[in-house]
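Appendix C: a fully annotated inverse folding record. The material below is reproduced so that readers can follow the format used throughout the book. The structure is listed first as tokens, followed by the designed sequence.
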């Protein structure tokens, strides 16, 4: 009798263990709600279509997802879809109101104008900005020779703004005179360069000629048998040698000055 009772207890324990092994814990879910003023916007969860706005309660397993909502103006330049990483918790409802971002481009004619936002340089045109807070900021466009322009952000209706800057006649004329004066100076440098190049060629040729004359008179001095002629040839050799040194110095000076003026003419 005792052995039967033991066998019965063993069977009950084994049955309980098997039952626990095959019992799955209950799976819990969370919910996602999308609020939007625009209807029928496609909603994607991890790049898979999950529905359209408005979305009241999408049942999801707990975890992290990438939420994307199509921008109703996505086909216009500078408008972008809403994308955000979300996390779903069990027995909780996550409410999301998509805030669609948009950028705007500033183009000026002529390009290269400096663009200041709240008195700070943001860049040069063409320039694209994405910070929505800038729509309530003060923007100033500046370019040398043109009038400063304050821009109203309400003009950004299509995501871009084309601006033709107006010339400042007074500044433009001053800059024009400065440029003319600069070109005149550069022209003078070029002329001086050409003159010095010619002078360097002439002095170089003269130095070769004078050196040959000095060498020739020195050879005559060595080969002459007359004392008077020897003295004459020697004096001539010394004289031509001095002329050669002067000519070489002039040649070097012309080369250095011509290089200096050439650099100034292209600077």
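Designed amino acids, in order:
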């Amino acid at each position: 009798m005792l052995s039967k009772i033991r066998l019965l207890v063993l069977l009950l324990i084994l049955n309980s263990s098997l039952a626990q092994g095959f019992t799955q814990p209950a799976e819990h879910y969370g919910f996602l709600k999308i609020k939007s003023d625009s209807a029928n916007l496609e909603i994607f969860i991890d790049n898979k279509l999950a529905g359209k706005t408005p979305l009241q309660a999408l049942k999801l397993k707990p975890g992290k997802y990438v939420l994307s909502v199509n921008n109703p103006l996505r086909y216009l330049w500078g408008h972008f879809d809403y994308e955000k990483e979300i996390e779903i918790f069990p027995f909780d409802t996550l409410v999301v109101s998509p805030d669609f971002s948009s950028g705007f481009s500033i183009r000026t004619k002529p390009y290269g104008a400096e663009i200041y936002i709240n008195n700070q340089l943001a860049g040069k045109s063409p320039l694209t900005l994405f910070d929505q807070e800038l729509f309530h900021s003060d923007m100033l466009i500046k370019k040398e020779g043109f009038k400063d322009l304050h821009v109203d952000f309400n003009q950004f209706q299509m995501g871009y703004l084309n601006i033709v800057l107006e010339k400042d006649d007074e500044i433009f004329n001053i800059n024009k005179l400065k440029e003319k004066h600069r070109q005149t100076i550069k022209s003078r440098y070029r002329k001086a360069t050409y003159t010095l190049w010619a002078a360097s060629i002439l002095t170089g040729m003269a130095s070769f000629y004078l050196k040959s004359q000095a060498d020739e008179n020195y050879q005559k001095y060595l080969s002459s048998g007359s004392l008077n002629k020897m003295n004459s040839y020697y004096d001539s050799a010394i004289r031509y040698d001095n002329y050669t040194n002067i000519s070489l110095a002039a040649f070097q000076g012309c080369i250095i000055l011509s290089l200096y003026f050439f650099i100034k003419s292209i600077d």
